[in-house]
Design brief:
The chain is an alpha/beta fold and 212 residues long. It folds into two domains: 155 residues, 3-Layer(aba) Sandwich (Alpha/beta knot), CATH 3.40.1280.10; 45 residues, no CATH class. Helix content is 38%, strand content 18%. It is built from seven helices and nine strands, in the order E-H-E-H-E-H-E-E-E-H-E-H-H-H-E-E. The protein has a seven-stranded parallel β-sheet with strand order 3-2-1-6-4-7-5, with helices on both faces. A two-stranded antiparallel ribbon has the order 8-9. Helix 1 packs parallel to helix 5 and helix 6 crosses helix 7. The longest helix is centred in the C-terminal third of the chain and has 18 residues. It is globular and about 60 Å long. The relative contact order is 0.16.
């Protein structure tokens, strides 16, 4: 899983609050190799739902924000292009975008859609073309459709064929995922993680010998 993580691909959920949509979007993010995502909430009730989703997302880090500006600042610092998914006129077909660039995909709330502030602050607006009577897909479905196009492009470029996490992050996450209880206790104590061997077992030096 860590070998396939894409640290320069993420999703920003703009006021998405329904538990099943939060869960489905998180699953899609994990499925394409996203390890860190963002959620924006303007109301306490939405924040509560998103916070619950953050606690339940075992394999991803979900960063919570109280404003779209805060989320945009976080991804802009990483050099990501910001793509907002909207059905508004003038939006570009999502398949015409280059997702091999560092990218943050912004998706909107179930009823209100994407906020005007999110649209105005984005680099590009994209859309999933609709040919029937309904105007848009469910937010979790639309997110999955766009993300797997990003995965297709990145796979074709070989971006899943080698580790893209920096070594420090790779080792930290490997320890936390393989030794969750111990890593939690060490974090509470403020103690460093011990090194792991090639098989993910804990190594402790005892004299001149390494024991497991």
């Amino acid at each position: 899983m860590l070998l396939h993580r894409q640290p320069d691909l993420t999703v920003i959920m703009d006021n998405v609050n329904k538990a099943y949509n939060l869960s489905a979007i998180i699953r899609s993010c994990d499925g394409v190799g996203i390890g860190e995502m963002h959620a924006v909430s303007y109301r306490k009730s939405i924040y509560t739902e998103q916070n619950a989703a953050a606690g339940a997302s075992k394999w991803l880090k979900l960063n919570l924000h109280t404003s779209i500006a805060s989320a945009y600042s976080a991804v802009s610092e990483c050099g990501m292009q910001i793509l907002v998914a909207t059905g508004k006129e003038g939006a570009q077909d999502f398949r015409e975008v280059d997702y091999t660039r560092p990218t943050a995909l912004v998706v909107g709330a179930e009823w209100d859609g994407i906020s005007e502030e999110a649209i105005q602050g984005a680099d590009h607006a994209i859309t999933v073309p609709m040919l029937g009577m309904v105007e848009s897909l469910n937010v979790s479905v639309a997110t999955a459709v766009i993300l797997f196009e990003a995965q297709r492009q990145r796979a074709a470029k070989g971006m899943y064929s080698q580790a893209r996490l920096n070594p420090e992050s790779f080792q930290r996450l490997l320890f936390e995922y393989t030794h969750p209880r111990l890593s939690r206790e060490l974090r509470q104590e403020g103690a460093p993680y011990p090194p792991l061997d090639a098989e993910g077992a804990i190594c402790m030096l005892q004299g001149s010998e390494s024991v497991r």
